[in-house]
Amino acid sequence: MDIQGGELNLAELFSDDNNFSKIKEELRALNRYRVEVGVMVPVGNKSLAFLQMIATVNEFGAEIYPKNGPYLVIPMKDGSFYKLKHVKIPERSFLRDGIDLGMFRINELVERDLSRIMNSELTAYELYEDVGRLIQQRIKDEIKLKVTPHNAPITIENKGKDDPLVDTGALYKSIGVKVMEI
After folding, report:
1. Distance (Å, rounded) from C-alpha 175 to C-alpha 37?
2. What angle, rounded to 10 degrees, do the helices at 20-29 and 124-145 form?
3. Sign of the dihedral defined by the CA atoms of residues 143, 144, 150, 151, in that order
4. pLDDT (tens digit, 9 = 90+) per residue, 3-26?
């Protein structure tokens, strides 16, 4: 295409030789998908419902009170039990922080991928896959990096470590991605 002298031939710009129709369709396709990232994969003997409950309790915090008696009974590794009137689990936002603290990188990725769509190097679906994988990795990074608030002494004693969101690794492994047509 010759744009010397300030002349622009729109017919040539929008010709099939420049993949304009394909690019236009891919840009429209951006409205046909959405990406979901979160606790989506059952791991080992842990059900998806259980892992989602663990994620929710840690994401927002919770206070747990006994339902069938005056105490919560906490089994310990050595076979003994602790009796507690209630347990307060502090908020450890790894899902929201995974996205919020990574927004700059997510925006950069979207800009790069939109440019690749404009150059006929990527599809709309692939853009959503890229965004999903980046968010998935950001959430997994937050699970590993989130060290405060610390575990309670009884939890440290039971787990053998003060690693608030990591015990068996099931929560980390449960983070999945799904691109869906809407």
Report:
1. 7
2. 40
3. positive
4. 455 665 556 655 566 678 889 999
H-only helix segments in 2-152: 10-13, 20-29, 48-60, 95-100, 103-118, 124-145
CA 4 to CA 124: how far, in whole Å?
A: 33
Question: Six-digit token pair at 38?
Answer: 């979160």
Domain layout of the chain by residue ranges: 26-61+91-181
Q: Which residue has the tokens 């309670």?
A: 152
Encode pLDDT of 125-163 as tens digits.
Answer: 999 999 999 999 999 999 999 989 999 999 999 888 999
The values of phi and psi at residue 83, to 5°, are -110, 125
pTM of the model: 0.84
